[in-house]
Design goal:
With 154 residues, the protein is of the alpha+beta class. It has 4 helices and 8 strands; from the N terminus they run ααββββββββαα. The radius of gyration is 16 Å and the shape is globular.
Length: 154
């Protein structure tokens, strides 16, 4: 049996903190093809996928948006809500019908400030997700646009 991904909420946050988040969640759904957000837009919320898949993409000037990663159950969609100026760095689209928990970013930031344990755990989780997504973006863009063999191994 493999270890759960540290980017999934179940592995990243203790049950107490997951419950606190769930208490303020709003259940939402998106049909396949719906845009959750676009790169450059205001990041005022985030989601945890319950079912379905969400594709992350990045704008590449003069080309089609490059698919970076596909997210599924238990994964965080959006990290830009935690860092000023709260602007999305990627875009996201439902690649299948999605059910998710949606969170108001300002409310979660307030909870993080009020409880340092919760804030620290959330910060570590979002940091892990951020690091993972940046590596995924780098690898994907090298796959798509760099001459073969030009990238370094990580």
């Amino acid at each position: 049996m493999s270890t759960p991904s540290p980017t999934r909420i179940s592995a990243a946050l203790p049950a107490e903190y997951r419950a606190r988040l769930t208490d303020i969640a709003r259940e939402v759904s998106f049909p396949a093809g719906a845009r959750l957000f676009n790169e450059g837009g205001h990041a005022d919320r985030f989601w945890i996928v319950r079912s379905g898949t969400v594709g992350l993409d990045v704008h590449v000037p003069g080309r089609r948006a490059a698919a970076i990663e596909t997210l599924g159950s238990g994964e965080l969609v959006g990290w830009s809500w935690l860092f000023p100026p709260y602007t999305w760095h990627f875009g996201a689209e439902a690649t299948s019908p999605v059910r998710a928990h949606e969170f108001d970013a300002a409310a979660v930031r307030t909870m993080m400030e009020a409880d340092t344990g919760f804030g620290s755990a959330m910060g570590r989780w979002v940091g892990q997700v951020l690091a993972h997504r940046l590596v995924a973006a780098r690898v994907r863009l090298l796959d798509l646009y760099a001459p073969h063999g030009s990238g370094s191994s990580l």
